[in-house]
């Protein structure tokens, strides 16, 4: 999965005249287009979908290619089923957008999270979508779509990226949810071992500012309900004295799957001189 994310990010950030034409404002419009498409699909809004999806649209379905009419019919049918049985309808969320565009064409990729409840417990499945859009008559329309489910290795690498973002924002709620109750955390600077509560308290009290965090050399091994992720995390920003900081930490993170989701079980890092 790391190879997939790397490939997508390289496409998105390549310094070329074409990609340079895609402004932040245009990317925002494309993200809004994607979300309106998703909302219309969930509602089964035939009129809106007819506007958003091009006449020559082709998507990759489970049984093969599907055209515009079949795609819209399937969306309307599924929306009707969800309204008839709302308890079975999944709650959907989208994030990790990567968008590239020219004045007349664009690709939009993102992660999808579908959460359902079974036997009183929430279960979330993950997939990734790739959309191809063209601007026709001054407005964006979808001309192609593909997607695939994410395996455990892919989910764990997304989780590592989410972990970095939660640390940057000092998002204690993320740590509360994603650290196992019996998790251990070895501080890469002091070598101190901390339990879940101590690790969260240390994160909250940390006066340093992480302006960017970058993962590299990641490797994932999954064996049943346990997994190990290794790699390097580069943290740049300012330390607790306000001085410039640029640290590289080689880490080993151990995860355990409980209640149908991966949780941090142990983490250890070693600062690279």
Give structural notes.
The chain is of the alpha+beta class and 273 residues long. The protein has helices at residues 2-13, 17-20, 24-43, 46-52, 68-84, 152-169, 172-178, 196-205; strands at residues 53-61, 64-67, 91-101, 105-118, 121-136, 139-149, 179-186, 193-195, 209-223, 226-238, 244-258, 261-271. The strands form two sheets. A six-stranded mixed β-sheet has the order 2-1-6-5-4-3. A six-stranded mixed β-sheet has the order 8-7-12-11-10-9. Helix 3 (24-43) runs antiparallel to helix 4 (46-52). The relative contact order is 0.11. Mean pLDDT is 89; it is low at 1-20.
Strand order of the largest sheet: 2-1-6-5-4-3
Cα-to-Cα separation, first versus last residue: 29 Å
The Rg value, from CA coordinates, equals 21 Å
Low-confidence stretches: 1-20
What is the helix tally? 8
- Element-level helix/strand string: HHHHEEHEEEEHHEEHEEEE
Mean pLDDT: 89
Please supply descriptive tags for the structure shown above.
single chain; 273 residues; alpha+beta; six-stranded mixed beta sheet; 12 strands; globular
Quick overview:
The chain is α+β, with helices and mostly antiparallel strands.
Q: How is the secondary structure organized here?
A:
Blueprint: H1 2-13, H2 17-20, H3 24-43, H4 46-52, E1 53-61, E2 64-67, H5 68-84, E3 91-101, E4 105-118, E5 121-136, E6 139-149, H6 152-169, H7 172-178, E7 179-186, E8 193-195, H8 196-205, E9 209-223, E10 226-238, E11 244-258, E12 261-271
Parallel strand pairs: 1-6, 7-12
Antiparallel strand pairs: 1-2, 3-4, 4-5, 5-6, 7-8, 9-10, 10-11, 11-12
Helix pairs in contact: 3-4
């Amino acid at each position: 999965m790391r190879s997939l994310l790397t490939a997508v990010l390289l496409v998105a950030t390549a310094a070329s005249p074409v990609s340079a034409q895609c402004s932040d404002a245009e990317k925002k419009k494309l993200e809004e287009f994607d979300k309106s498409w998703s909302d219309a699909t969930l509602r089964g809004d035939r009129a809106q979908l007819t506007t958003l999806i091009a006449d020559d649209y082709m998507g990759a379905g489970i049984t093969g290619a599907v055209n515009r009419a079949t795609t819209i019919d399937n969306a309307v049918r599924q929306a009707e089923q969800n309204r008839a049985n709302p308890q079975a309808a999944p709650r959907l969320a989208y994030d990790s957008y990567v968008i590239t565009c020219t004045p007349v064409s664009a690709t939009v990729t993102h992660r999808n999270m579908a959460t359902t409840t079974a036997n009183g417990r929430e279960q979330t499945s993950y997939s990734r979508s790739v959309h191809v859009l063209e601007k026709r008559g001054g407005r964006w329309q979808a001309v192609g779509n593909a997607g695939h489910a994410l395996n455990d290795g892919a989910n764990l690498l997304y989780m590592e990226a989410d972990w970095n973002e939660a640390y940057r924002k000092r998002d204690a709620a993320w740590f509360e949810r994603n650290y196992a109750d019996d998790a251990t955390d070895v501080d890469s600077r002091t070598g101190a071992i901390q339990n879940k509560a101590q690790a969260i308290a240390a994160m909250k009290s940390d006066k340093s500012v992480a302006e960017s965090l970058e993962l590299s050399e990641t490797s994932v091994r999954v064996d049943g309900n346990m997994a190990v992720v290794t790699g390097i995390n580069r943290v740049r920003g300012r330390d607790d004295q306000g001085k410039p900081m640029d640290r590289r930490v080689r880490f080993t993170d151990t995860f355990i799957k409980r209640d149908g989701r991966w949780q941090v079980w142990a983490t250890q890092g070693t600062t690279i001189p």
